Amino acid sequence: MSILNQNLLTLDFWQDKVTYGKKTVPIGTIGCAALNITDEQIAALTTLCQPLNEIILMLGTGNVDVSVFPTAEKALWKIVRFLQKTEPFSFLDLATDEKELHRLFDEEHIENIVSYIKALQEIGAAASFDEKYSHAVGVLKLIQRMSQLGNTLKIFKGGMIDFAHKLHDSKRTPDGYAAAFAKQFPKDETLSPENSMWMQLTNTTIQYVSSVMPEKGIPQLVKRMHYVSFVGMFRSDLFEGLCVGHAPRKCPICGKWFLTTDARQTKYCGGLAPGDKRGRTCRQIGNLKGREQRELADDHPIKAIYTRRMNTITQYLRRGTLDKQIADVMKRLAKDKLERAIFDYEYAKGRYETEMSQDALFIEATNKT
């Protein structure tokens, strides 16, 4: 079945491109897209993963509860539908219908899975190589990969969002990204397990294979990497992107992360601007607003509020009454709100000043850290 043949945790790297599923994109696109999966979506995925984790627990204990399978089937279908419409997972060929997924958990196949779990307890890993359990092995491998989605996305964003903001403000060259990386992560040449930022990369398997790249049409030698977790795959793609000068940047109009592939100060993404009745892109809106932003006087109320707040944060830092990490986040939030106020008249006249107060910024920054 096609759902069992998906390389969910495999990337092909070739020069400055990466292939995931059947789509080839600039390196860094996979990790950048994962940054845009919202906290609400991650929370929903974590809930959906619970019945899948119960099946994984059976593998370890051998205690089988067949009543879990119908719930797991429904959860897996909802997860697949989410993946089909969400980048970077939509790059995969997940054209699965509900009937196909149901066949994975029909009575015959559930019996096969139960028998396989019991065989694991009796003869160990050798059961995995028995052809009669091939369906069970495929289904459980799929469940194992899907069951980690919510938690792995939470871990990835928890470790990478702050770093992405630092990249956003860094010099947009490989040297600038390397400097930002050195400040963010401790040097750990031994890849020790105590360094959690590296743990998910240590079990990666690398192959060199001949593969036909879409833009070439002829076989090319590519580096194929297989991962044990999505968080490792996302981090790897993001870091590989930095090595060739690709980095995420946050669009001030829609608030989404997009990938820049050169040192130009590309400020806006090419996606549709939210709420624009004429269907223009953020880049089109941004270009129109650029002149207005440049001509905004320093004493304009919008900029004056921002300037006062930055001065206050700096004063608190000098007095030692504000933690530097919190202060850095407050400054970043203030800058984001200034940019939004420039482009969003309703926001500028409404919540902007309230959200830019010292107390409001402090609370928001504390929650984010």
Automatic annotation (TrEMBL):
<dbReference type="InterPro" id="IPR045722">
    <property type="entry name" value="DUF6076"/>
</dbReference>
<dbReference type="Pfam" id="PF19553">
    <property type="entry name" value="DUF6076"/>
</dbReference>
<protein>
    <submittedName>
        <fullName>DUF6076 domain-containing protein</fullName>
    </submittedName>
</protein>
